[in-house]
Amino acid sequence: MAPSETTTRPADPDRISETPRRDMRLDEPLRRRLSRLKRFAAEFIRPHALDLLIAVLAMTVFAASVVALPWLFKTLVNDILVRRDADALHGVVAVVLVLFTARAGAGYLQQFMLSRVSNKVTTALQNRIADHLLGLDLAFFQKNSVGQIIARATDDVNVLNSTTTNIVVTLGRDVVTFIGLVAYVLWASPQWFALALAGAPLIAVPVVLANRKLRALTRRGQSLGGEILQAFEEGLHGIRGVKAENLERFERKRLSEVIIGRRRVAMKVARTRAVMSPIVDMVTAVALVGVLTVGGSQVISGESDAGELMAFVTSLMLLYEPLRRLLQVNAQLQICGVSIARIYEILDRRARIVDAPDARPLADPAGDIRFENVTFAYQDDGAPVLDGFDVTIPSGASVAFVGPSGSGKTTILNLVARLYEPSQGRVVIGGQDIAGVTLESLRESIALVSQDVLLFDASVRANIAYGRPDATDEQVAAAARAAAAEDFILGLDGGYGFRVGPRGSRLSGGQRQRVAIARALLRDAPILMLDEATSALDGAIEARVQANILAMRKGRTTLIIAHRLATVVAADLICVVERGRVAEQGDHLGLLARGGAYAESHRLQRG
Ligand SMILES: Nc1ncnc2c1ncn2[C@@H]1O[C@H](COP(=O)(O)OP(=O)(O)OP(=O)(O)O)[C@@H](O)[C@H]1O
C-alpha cells in the first residue's frame, strides 16, 4: 500500500488539515480506512504480538470464569437448594475457589500486559513522530500551527492508547464471553434463545446511524483539541503584551470560544455514545420479559426445572456488558481511525529538501559562497522574493546584507542553509552546488544566530553549549567573552548556572542575543550567519561584539544582516539588496563614494 493512499490530501501539500469541513470527510471509502488500520496494526501493534497473545490468553481465562457462572447457578439451584446434595455443595465451593483465583490472576496479567503494550506503542509513536517532525522542511512549520502539530503527537496518541486498549479487551475478552454465553443459552434452550432474540433488530438502525455521526464528530473534536492548544500557545507566548495592554478580556473570549466549541462537540459525542446503553437495556428487557414469561410458565407447569431457568436468565444478564461493549467497538474503531489518520497525515509527509541520491559531503565549507542567478519564491505560484540574485562572497570574508525591510535578506541566509531551494539558479559553496551536498555536512558547517533566539529553560552554560555537550568550561567562557556576555553572566545569581527561564524569559533581549552569539561562536563553524543578531544591543556592546567576531574570523565566512549601518562599516563587502536583487555592492567607503542608496541611508541614519 502506497503511503499516500492512506492519508487525506489537503490542497496545499505543506498544510495538514485543520478546518472542520475537510476534517469531516464521511465519504472516505471503507477500504481505505481499513487499510490504514491494518497498516497501523502492522507497524505499531505487531511488534508486541507476544505480549498481546499473553493478554488475550489471560482474557480468555477471565471470560471462561464468567461463562462458568450460569452452570454454577444451575447446580446451586437444582442440586443444593432443591435436592439438598452435600457433595454438590463441596463441589460448588471448590469450583468457586478455583474460578475466582484463576480470574484474579488472569485479570492482573491481562491488565499488566495491556498496559505494557499500550505504553510501548505510545513511546514508539511519539518517538517516530518526533523523529519525523525534525526531518520535515522549514516550510511545513511555517504553514502549520504548532498547536495542531502538538495535538497529533499528544492528544491523538493518547486517544489511540485508550481506544486500542478498549478494543483489544472487547475483542479478546468480550467476544469469548459473548460466544461462550450465547453457545450456552442456545444449547440450554433454543426456544428461549429465539424469544431472547426478539428485540435484537431494534439495535441495528441506531447503531449504524450513531457510528456514522460519531466519526464526523470525532474528527471535529480532535481538530478542536489542536485549536485549543494553539490558542493557549499563542496567548501565553504573548502574555507580556496581553497584560501590559490589558487585553486579558479579549484573550479570555478567544480562548473560551474554542474551549466551549470543543465542549459542544464532546457533548454531542457523549450523547451519541450514550445512546447505546439504553438500547441494550431495552433489548435485554425485551429478552428477559419473553424468557421469564414463557420459561416461568414452563417451570410452574413442570416442563422445565428452576435451575435451568435461573442459569438461562443469569446468562442473559451476563451478556449485557459484553454486548454493550461489542456494540461500541465500532465507535471505538471510528475514533481510533480518526486519530490514526491524523497521525499518518504527519508521518506520510515527505520532506522535499533531502539529500540527492549522489549527495557528497561539503568539501570546502570555508570556500567562496556564490549565488548564481538565483530566483526564489516561497509559494510555487507566488511573486519571486529573489529575482536573478547574483553575488559572490569571497572565502573568509565578512559580508553584510543591507536593504529595505522585506527585500529578501533573511531569504538569502535561508538559501545558504538550504532551508529552501532556489526555483532557478544555484547556490555554490567552494565550487560545489549545495543541492548536491549532504544536508548534514552543509548544516554542520553553519552557525546561525537568527532574529528569534532559541533558548531553553536551562542554565546559561547549557544554553551556550547546546549542540556541543563536550565543550569545556573554558571554551564556554571564551565564547561568552567573545560575545561580550561574560560580564553580565558573572553578575547573574549563580553565574553560568543561572537558569534562563522558558525561552530565556529571565534575560533581557540583548542578553539573550549575546548567549545565542556565544553559542554560535562555540560551534566554531566555517560559515557564521548573523541575522539581526545584535539588534538589541547598545551601540558600545554591539561594536565590541562585532570587533570580536571579525577578529576571530580567521578563515570563517561571516554573513551579517543588519539595519543599523554602523554595524556593517567594517565588513569586507556590503551588499545592498532591493526587491530581491543586488542594487549595489562594495566596501563602506566605496559605497559612500558611489553616492547611491547605501550612501543615502547612511546619511539618513547619521543625520
Ligand atoms: N515563510 C515565508 N512564506 C512566505 N513568504 C515569506 C516567508 N518568509 C518571508 N516571506 C516574504 O518574503 C519577503 C522577503 O522576506 P525576508 O524575510 O527575506 O526579508 P528581509 O529583507 O529579511 O526583511 P526584514 O529586514 O524585515 O527582516 C517578504 O515579502 C516576506 O513577506
Automatic annotation (TrEMBL):
The organism's superkingdom is given as: Bacteria
Domain named ABC transporter: residues: 369-604
Would you tell me the protein name for this molecule? ABC transporter ATP-binding protein
Pfam families listed in its UniProt record: ABC_membrane, ABC_tran
Region named Disordered: 1-22
One molecular function GO term is:
ATP binding
Tell me what topology the record assigns in the membrane: Multi-pass membrane protein
Composition-biased stretches, type Basic and acidic residues, lie in 11-22
Q: Which residues cross the membrane?
A: 49-73, 88-109, 167-186, 192-210, 274-294
Q: Which PROSITE patterns match?
A: ABC_TM1F (PS50929), ABC_TRANSPORTER_1 (PS00211), ABC_TRANSPORTER_2 (PS50893)
UniProt keywords, alphabetically: ATP-binding, Membrane, Nucleotide-binding, Transmembrane, Transmembrane helix
The entry sums up its family as follows: Belongs to the ABC transporter superfamily.
Where it mainly occurs, coarsely classed, is membrane
SUPFAM superfamilies tied to this protein: ABC transporter transmembrane region (SSF90123), P-loop containing nucleoside triphosphate hydrolases (SSF52540)
Could you tell me which residue ranges the ABC transmembrane type-1 domain spans?
Answer: 53-334
Subcellular localization, per the record? Cell membrane
